[in-house]
Amino acid sequence: MKRCSTCNRTYTDPNLSFCIDDGTPLRTVETEDESTVVRPRDNEDDWNPVAYRPPVPYVPPGTHDRPPRRVWPWVVGIAGTFLLGILAIGIIGVIMVPRMMRARQNERGRVTIRQPDNSNTTENSNSNTTEHSNSNTSETPGNANSNSTEHASTPPPTNHDQVLAQLKDVENDWTAANLNADKKKLDRILADDYAGQESEEGGLETKTEYINTIERNTDVEKWEFSDLNLMLTGDRATLSGIITYFVNDRSVSFDFKDKFVWRDGRWQATGAELKRRGDADGDL
Known about the structure:
By secondary structure, this protein is α+β, with helices and mostly antiparallel strands. Helices cover about 25% and strands about 25% of the residues. The strands form 3 sheets. It has a 5-stranded antiparallel β-sheet, covered by helices on one side. It has a 3-stranded antiparallel β-sheet with strand order 2-1-3, with no helix packed on it. The termini are far apart.
């Protein structure tokens, strides 16, 4: 005999293993046991049988399947970080590259200007050799318009004494070039827009006419400047004074007024006026 431990119903069929009412496994009991007697329920209507629950496999606690982790948030985060890095590098490049280029251009544009030594000597000699060459032996400061110091972006000097010394050098070179008919040097001294006095009688001549008509003069032994007066305004300068030529045993003096402009890192002549002083004997 078998009995249900839930509803206490007994079964005599040895082939049954579960209670047909609630599905509880049946337990074998001895027939002599009085507790195995089936007693009818007082009220069949009040009995609520438990639904059958088939056995389920045992699952240890903590081994339930966890939901898979999502990958796309990691992908989005890495991609966003990468884009932010590229953006930051681009901003830094836009700010730093122009500064580096300007710094490099400034380094290339730096020019060291050698200042001439001060000298008050204005006397120059024009020695005649067998080849009739005129040499300028003036002990004047070094020419501030040297090729080694000129640069298109060099600002004009503003010191009065410095400009006066520079223009005296230019005047000495100009005079020597006139006496030697040095057209190459004259081309450097005269500005392209030069317009100077053609002769003592007046008239104007251009740079090209000046250079083409210049002739060598071997009579002058030396010359000197005196009573120099400088007017300086920005990149323009006007130098006036007296120039005296010494020819054999006599001298001839002229009042001159030359105009200059600071261009391409040096002083260039843009005009000239010349007037004989007093009653001089003969021409140069």
